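Onboarding guide, step 5: your first structure request.
Type a short instruction followed by the sequence, for example:

Predict the 3D structure of this protein.
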Amino acid sequence: MKKNKRIFGKILMGLMILFFYLPIVFMIVFSFNESKSLTHFTGFSLQWYERMFRNREMMDSLYTTILVACIATVVSTILGTISAIGLSKSKKVVHDLVMQVNDFPLMNPEIVTAIGLMLLFITFHIERGFMTMLLAHIAFCTPYVILSVMPKIRSLDPNLADAAMDLGATPWKALTSVIVPQIMPGIFSGALIAFTMSFDDFIISYFVTGRGVKNLSIMVYTMSKRVNPSINAISTLVVLLITVVLVLVNVVPILRERQVKARKAKALAENK
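The system replies with structure tokens like these:
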């Protein structure tokens, strides 16, 4: 009985992986299609990649997407980390109230957040464009960072910072050299979530942008109304970039750990 359950579980997992990744494989394959057909592969060609790189509007949207995502990730990670550390030292009433407010952007439908931000910019007569998109992305990414960092802070010894300052460390030194390294996994996971949310966002970006500023999701939306295989090409490029980032994120820590172990082994050998 247990064996049958394991087999069924493996089959179900295989079907789920196939369901999620088959469309991506399909998209990559047809990005090299010679014709405009999205159902019949007529021959290998790089023409859609050539057209993609020649399309200034498409390249500008990719550049805007990456720039906004990187800046929003850095700013929201700093704000979220500082907020989480501050909340850990706040009174329970203040902590609970702020966390409830922090959950609003996560619980609200994106369309509600998008309309709210749009009305905010209109009310204060802020011209919509790159800056409003960036501010909106920082606003909805910061709560994800706070939620990622808070569990790591709760797991810390509350007397850790006091112990560091008793040993002569300044408050800033205690924060940067003792607290931050201990919660780095939470900061890193929050930064990855923030980058993903910013890079992927369409609804909020669509409502708060203006003056011809478009990110990649808005560009793909406008291009999807007509058959254009260049969408497959730029999407394949994005998948490639994300794959490289994921490989680096997983490989670099392993290489560092091996280097540390090698140094320790070398130091022990020299001491002997």
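Each response can be followed by summary notes, for example: The CA atoms of residues 2 and 260 lie 43 Å apart.
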